[in-house]
Amino acid sequence: MSFRIRGAAAALFIAVLAVPLPALADEDGAELFRSTCADCHGAKGDQRALGQSRPIATLDAATITETLIARRAAPRTMQDRVKAALTDDEVKALADYVSSLGGGS
């Protein structure tokens, strides 16, 4: 491998390392929330989904994670089936994002 190619590869590697991982997780959580939750829970997580749930933005990340995993294990509704498709990393990103919206810290 030539010096020029090695230098470019090293620069690319350093650039990738410079991207803060939590920022990527925040973006992933925000996008997941927008695409799977916001229609029912509101853009800020402050609405009661279908008039039944409490506002999820008031929950902490641990409670959100526990709830998503429990619903994933035993889906009962269409929303539960959506939750069942989430990976562990997506659950974490979503829980972290939602808890950052309100009082759940």
TrEMBL record:
Gene3D superfamilies, per the entry: Cytochrome c-like domain
Q: Name one Pfam family in it.
A: Cytochrome_CBB3
Q: Which GO terms describe its molecular function?
A: electron transfer activity; heme binding; metal ion binding
- Domain of life from the UniProt record: Bacteria
- Write out the entry's keywords from A to Z: Heme, Iron, Metal-binding, Signal
Q: Which part of the chain is the Cytochrome c domain?
A: 24-102
InterPro entries with a match to the protein in the record: Cyt_c-like_dom, Cyt_c-like_dom_sf
Indicate the secretion signal residues.
Answer: 1-25
Specify the protein name.
Ubiquinol-cytochrome c reductase cytochrome c subunit
